[in-house]
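Q: Is it fine to ask for two folds in a single conversation?
A: Yes, each is treated on its own. Send the first.
Q: Here.
A: Result:
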Amino acid sequence: MSDEREHWYEDEAGPLVRLYAVTGGRAKAQRPDLELTTLLVDARSGARSRLLGPEYDAIVELCRAPLSVAEVAAHLRLPLTSTKLLVGDLIDEGRLHARAPRNQPSTAPDLNVLRAVLAGIKRS
């Protein structure tokens, strides 16, 4: 079996099991603090998660070294929403730590940039 077909929920024709089966019927993440760049790391290296499912095990394995939510989703080939749900379960269990990445740019707009844009609009 090739790496591309290792996931039990899909084959060449596409998903065999709908994503709500992977997420236990849930469709929306309850953790607004989980962003694309949130870093995840295994909190209890070597311990086994109480949560069942190959995705949970894969996430814990991936997060032995810090990875972002987006990177985990890419490795699992799952949508971000589904990944956030699974990651949230592991955080709630205390299995993963989540932290905002260092050197994350401020989300507040730069007033000088906004003034320059406004000036440019007024000139045109």
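Q: Second one now.
A: Result:
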Amino acid sequence: MAASLLAAVGLVVTVDQPAQAVARPVATPNATPAAVFSGGTEAQQTAQLRQLARKLVAAGAPGVIVRVDDGRGRVVRITEQALWTTKDHRLGVGNEFRMGSNTKTMMATLVLQLVGEGRLALTDPVEKWLPGHVPNGQAITLRMLLNHTSGLFDYTEDTTLWPSILGKDRRTWTSEQSLAVGVQHDPLFAPGTKWSYSNTNYAAVGAILEKVTGRSPADLVRDRIARPLGLKHTYFATDSTWHGHHARGYEPDEAHMPPGVPAGARDYAGPHRAGHVDVSDNNPSWAGAAGAVISTAHDWARFYNALMSGKLLPAAQLAQMRTTVPTVPGQPDGPGYGLGIFTATTPCGTVWAHEGGIPGYLSLNATDPTGNRTASILVSTEAYSEYPNAFPAEIAKADQTLKAAAICAMFDKPAPTGAPAG
């Protein structure tokens, strides 16, 4: 679930070269009248996105879901899947999908709701809520956890997690257990001095949410986000159970995994088909508050609309969420990370977004600053994103081209140069 390169939409994230963590507010421009899509008719736009989705499947993705809403009532819905996957299921735009690290946006929303209620403060040290659980916890604030400036080591990089990630160990992980794995390692830097994406931050957030409210993250997502917004297919997974029709997720099996992937990370548990392993029913509890939420493209669009329009957070807390730190060394005005969400200025407009990766599932959910325009690109495998140097460049290029075209379609603008016409 490490942050990957979102170069196609300008959200470039490097996790090994953190930048100085200087907070800066990002202005939210006033909404402007939507321009007429200059890339052709609606049918041509849909055809272009479908062609790009097919190209990604041809390059090796088992399945692709695309949903784009231009904020004017026009919604593009596309599914493409490899022929061999149709024996397992028919992929649908409304299928439930593991959203991976998009979960962090919901966790940050829950924290900020409690801040607005006076039950938490972003300046609270971790030690206040989790005494003795985090070394140097007095120097790490809640804000540092939310914007990845704590310096904590990423627990998902510890080989202790591999059996669970691979689906061989089906134990149920708690936030405190995941946090304990992460803090066994030395910190990467002094708190608040740099930026580095770490899932351990959100394991700590999950534990704090439980401590403050006496309730689980699953209950909080259900009662504070999903039910109020009518998100019928959005929930925090605590085991392998799905609530509705869902996309099947696949990873290359050990015999078909590229040689550049570490040997211990190859052997997924699950049914085998066409050189892949179906990992859909593996237990994702190890991801927890860092990545266990399940949702759909439609539900996520409604969530973004409610979030960015102020329906979920008071204005002061939404402004805090959109106060960012730079993620790229030497680029203080480049891509930024707020509280549980990325932002960047793309060739077609400013986006707020997050990407998620968990075995079998890769997702990018994006919105404009108002929440009216949204785009989701959901791919039913994670491997080529998790190990980009091991897979042919063709699949990464196809992935980036589709994402860039979907983001531009969201803004009623033509796809970047190089994307095929419909």
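Q: Anything structural to flag on that second result?
A: Two points. The mean pLDDT is 89. Residues 125 and 141 are 4 Å apart (CA to CA).
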